[in-house]
Amino acid sequence: MVGSEKENGSSPAPPSQKADVKKKYGVVNPISYAGPTEADLHRNALLEKLLMESGIYESMEETARREEVLCRLDQIIKDWVKQLTRQKGYTEKMVEEANGIVRTFGSYRLGVHGPNADIDTLCIGPSYVTREHDFFVILHNILLEMEEVSDLQPVNDAHVPVMKFKFQGISIDLLYASVSLLIVPEDLDISQNSVLYNTDEKTVRSLNGCRVADQILKLIPNVENFCTTLRCLKFWAKRRGVYSNVTGFLGGVNWALLVAQVCQLYPNAIPSMLVSRFFRVYTNWRWPNPVMLCPIEEDDLGFNVWDPRKWSRDRTHLMPIITPAYPCMNSSYNVSASTLRVMVEQFLFGNKVCEEIELNKANWSSLFEPSLFFESYKNYLQVDIVAADADDLLAWRGWVESRLRLLTLKIERDTDGMLQCHPFPNEYIDTSKPCSHCAFFMGLQRQPGVKVQEGQQFDIRATVDEFKQGVNSYNLWRPGMDIFVSHVRRRQLPTYIFPEGYKRQRQLRHTTTTTPEGSSSPSSEKRFKRKHDASSGPGKPKKTSFGSPECVGIGGSSIPVNSGIEDIACESSITQKVVLESEDGANPESMQPSAIRLSLESTA
């Protein structure tokens, strides 16, 4: 899977970092125990300086505020449990001993959270305190009456039920788990499998976040190096547009598990080395071979664990990244063929840049160049989401975003994988609209290497209709909530998605950059000569379809659509057919051998 590596000429790591040469940290032996050279230490200092200047660390004042909020939340939970204990008729002695505790997980627990990041928290209560009523009704109402709490949003029908809110301006995601204990001890060890006894699936999933975070920290050789490397890779993934579990890429826990395995493979490496090895390892990884930090554990509690030999659904997973706590699950089941393709391309990009950095031909800033998503495709799907006000949009946007992954899967399914989608996780807001609005975009291209027949067409009308029907089944729908899907060409993209409100001119020729060392290097993104898009110049035709709709049909079934050749609309009165035509040149961002042109034949 990953070949061996020679690390000649490296000096020993400091005693505090040096790992036991005989120790095996994961399911396979380390690739190298080598520590950093002087050059590695220099590159590491430059990397840490860049990270500090990038604003991904919070201030000491914000850290203190978070600790204060968590202490306050913990006391609220304790008072709530005592109140319920009294209301349910338990003795005063029982009321006095009643307890609930708050644990953190995710980026905060791992020590890699940034400014304004939310805090993933878990409330653990006794067996007689229920999720459905006591948590989502009683505690919800208590929080609702508190001045410190705002934007309270219960999501009790989620895969992992959660209460979202802001406490003194700090975002909190609060889960609940009821364990089989009458009294919850303050020092409850939730890493023990016995805590799962007599619990349901939702409770297991709620506990899983804390149990996984604790296991990760136990299975890595150096926590400090892990944290710095993970901060770096999360920052990189966000800059490159591949940080989003809900969209079909990877979220925080996925990136943490990938980084943790690299730390196991190179136990004495420092962050600059680990970042380089990260891209080297995952550029050569043979998916769907799973990433695992430890052997999959079986237990007699009866919960299903990830096992493609036993479960057919597990055999469909394309990029399995397995959690290390029982019951072991695939944390990346949302990944599709299209999003896996994009991530592999980005790993290749990162590996190429790191190779140049090690040869002093590039600097670290080259690694964090933002993705040129809106310069990478000829064609896009634009998904506009509107609601009557900001509160409704918050809930509606969350629901629609959680379904966008299904649109990608449906298009792949209905075109036999011939039409590839690249969903972009960033949302964009058109502030000129009279209603609350946001938009998401997907890049479209035909599958590389597939011969295109003249006049070949794909009718995705039914695909889009099916997607919209599923979205509109939202059980908390309110008047004003609506969704619009349209096909836009690159030259038609709305200006509000671009910085400063204008479109950057594409870079067509090979460029060079100058490193701090004074050497000249190729731009970190590989450039290919492309056919000039003559239509992108002055005098280009105006977009004939709505791109981000005016709110004139909110809540209704009709939308203003001009049935021109470049429209993809969702109205049953318009026949939509996507015509793929081959085009000379290649895509500089995705580095594919060809691009596509989408056009639409519309008939009334």
Describe the fold and architecture.
The strands form 4 sheets. The chain has a 5-stranded mixed β-sheet, sandwiched between helices. Strands 7-8-6-10 form a 4-stranded antiparallel β-sheet. The longest helix is centred in the N-terminal third of the chain and has 28 residues, at 60-87. It has helices at residues 38-53, 60-87, 92-97, 106-110, 131-144, 201-219, 223-239, 252-265, 271-283, 337-358, 364-367, 390-414, 461-471, and strands at 101-105, 119-125, 149-155, 162-167, 170-178, 379-387, 419-428, 436-446, 457-458, 482-489, 512-514, 520-522, 578-583, 595-600. Helix 7 packs across helix 8 (252-265) and helix 8 crosses helix 9 (271-283). Strand 11 (512-514) and strand 12 form a beta hairpin. It has 604 residues and is an alpha+beta fold.
Layout of secondary structure:
Layout: H1 38-53, H2 60-87, H3 92-97, E1 101-105, H4 106-110, E2 119-125, H5 131-144, E3 149-155, E4 162-167, E5 170-178, H6 201-219, H7 223-239, H8 252-265, H9 271-283, H10 337-358, H11 364-367, E6 379-387, H12 390-414, E7 419-428, E8 436-446, E9 457-458, H13 461-471, E10 482-489, E11 512-514, E12 520-522, E13 578-583, E14 595-600
Parallel strand pairs: 2-5
Antiparallel strand pairs: 1-2, 3-4, 4-5, 6-8, 6-10, 7-8, 9-13, 11-12, 13-14
Can I get a quick summary?
With 604 residues, this protein is α+β, with helices and mostly antiparallel strands.
